[in-house]
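User: Structure tokens for this complex, please. No commentary.
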Amino acid sequence: MRTDLITLRPEGLYCAAGDFHIDPWRPVARAVITHAHSDHARTGHAAYLASREGERVLRARLGDIALQTLDYGERLRIGDATVSLHPAGHVLGSAQVRVEVEGEVWVASGDYKLEADGTCSAFEPVRAHTFISESTFGLPVYRWRPQAELLAELNRWWAANADAGRSSVVFAYAFGKAQRILAGLDTRIGAVICHGAVEAMNRAYRDSGVALPATRAVSEGLDADLLRRALVIAPPSAQGSPWMKRFGDYADCFASGWMQVRGARRRRAVDRGLVMSDHADWPALMRAIGETGAQRVIVTHGQVAPMVRWLNEQGLEAGAFRTEFGDERDDADSALQTATGDADAPPA
Amino acid sequence: MKRFATLYDALDASTSTRAKVEAMRAYFAATPAEDAAWAVYVLAGGKLRQAAPSRLLRETGARVAGLPDWLFDECYEAVGDLAETLALILPPPEADGDVPLHRWVDRLGALRAAGAGDKPALLESAWRALDARSRFLFNKLITGGLRVGVSRLLVTRALSSVAGVPAETIAQRLIGYLASDPSRAGMSGARYEALIAPPGDGELGLQPYPFFLAHPLQQAPAEVLGAAEDWLAEWKWDGIRGQLVRRAGEAALWSRGEELVSERFPELIEAALTLPEGCVLDGEVLAWQDGAPLPFARLQTRITRKTVSRRLIADVPVVFMAYDLLEQDGQDLRPQPQWTRRQKLEQLLATRPHPRLMSSPLIGGDWPTLAGQRAQARDRGVEGLMLKRRDAAYGVGRVKSDARGQWWKWKIDPWTVDAVLLYAQRGHGRRAGLYSDYTFAVWSEAADGTRTLMPFAKAYSGLTDAEMRAVDAFIKANTIERFGPVCSVRPELVFELGFEGLQASPRHKSGIAVRFPRMLRWRQDKPAAEADTLEALKALLSAGTAIRNE
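Assistant:
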């Protein structure tokens, strides 16, 4: 029997044939990065490999790193392995890592979603013998509505607030979700104001060639009339912080897949939950896994136990890697931490 | 149903009282009476008999959604609400019609009446016709309750504003409106119209007044309440709050949940019939023997039984400990000062003495004297003191107005014990997905000196949201084993639990049962080995019993 192409080591997922790690959580010599979220892309590795699409956002997050980039689909020989990156549709630059050794193919998904959102390359299925999948929303209760419906609802809510003379605040993860919402706003309603953490990522998106509407910063000294019709995008950590006071009696909304469940919505104590996620929902996870054609699936994070059991019952060979990607402790509340320092909570 | 679903969403989304009342007002103003009749009932907390057992809902839901039972259970655990879990997993609806709320309640009735074999098909066809929001509400109604964070007081206000009828009148009618289960007694638009009709003469019947509720006193009374001579002090009895209504040749006993409990306490009804016509007493039902209250657990045996046998009546004798007179000679006394009502109550009970109708004694003295009395409350089998302002009127509900017009419960400090978190279960509602329900243990020493942790209490309340998240994270990282929804946790966290009393209990493995346990604080300074022992708890038990028996 052949040895596994990718195994779990204390540092992270490891490919012995190419002597590299995928999204390692401890410093290594060579790291292949699926995407720039903090639980997947960490500082301290000697050399990085990532998608060209994600170069700017990765540098914006990690600063000065030794980074080699690949176009999607471009093949690179590393040791005995052939590596290529394929769009994962999760955030700008997100990639599935395809590893081939002597005809055997493994694909590590990182985080992914299937619906095209317009701010990054859309997910592409990749055939594999073994598929390493996330399972953040791996329960049948998680089913998303189409993005167009969600954005239309959001714009209606914004317009109603603007007509009532209140600003609208959307709490959304600063990298990915925020830009996706921004790109879908109907800016005829009013001005868009972004929190500094969001604006930093907007800049990286614009520098990468993604068109985003004009945004304003509070440092510009915005007048009261503008604020009353404005939509504000802020990271979840801003909820309840002094930064919010300037918006007075605002309406607020939290954008996350976790908002699907009423208890999580009530816990978050916002006026509205927008069920919008950058992860695949249950039907999409099933479709993605099916389209790889893989007979073996390894689940990394999220709803691991139910997903493994379900896939085994479907006749696949399923197992798990215990990773440090958005681990079980955060499963109900990763994006719901109200404490400071949200940066380390995986987005949803 | 869609209009009602929209109302529900508005109520669920808002934390503002004003917005909730306004949303209900708008709904009632635009809704036909036969729908409004049901909406009032369920929003105000009225219960419906469960139309299908939860097990059947789960099985049918899993089958319709094409999920194995174990995966359904995983979903339920993550969501923490059966009605919502079902709404989230069912396939998209087939029709997009809108059927009025009362028609859906009719279908609910048909479901309730159907045999076990027919229920799955009825459920399935109902689900197919409803959109996701309406499905959720329909499922909620099947399982009996709505719980949307609307108090009866808010419903009363909304109705009062729609109909232009005084809120007091609506509040009083609402008690009767909610007291009979419409899944038996029926419901109609006419009942709703009567509820909001202009007040008529002599329409009181046997309805009680809305209860005036007390606030807990957290500080020293002198700081908040001023001079002691402005206040009346009474014992805070550990019984069932009730109103004894005597009108039109009849009598009724209502509990604080505004539930009619006359049948459970026939001897009190008999006693009430000796009172003059047109009077209403407010007080406490107590199990009572040899001039002292019996533990609450004894009284509980009188409420948990459907029928009260003669033997039970003899075993657990009860009295009505009156402390207020709300109506006399058919006159509403509530606007009169506390002191005046109190005097009239004492005169009344003195002229019509009955061994089961007692008047709660007044306790005199300055604040230090009262504090001394309060310290002895536990020995007397009471929970502390009640403080009521002499010149205040009888209010409605738990109003937040001037502190001086309130009733205050000045409860004795709870007993405390440091206990170890041993098991955890995920919560429901806004705690869905979070491990929020805990089982606690204390050390039990065997004859050979080995120590084991003995579970003795469950507690759910007392932590802040931030603390609960931290405990939840600890539990997830330190789970030893899972038994369905419950998991055992590495025994490391210590909490100070407070409780109001304890009793020997052969039904519990620990041999004791504690009353009202809750978490007072998280003892992050204390290792598990230093938690309290079962022996120490049992010592409290014998101390308490000894005093009680004196």
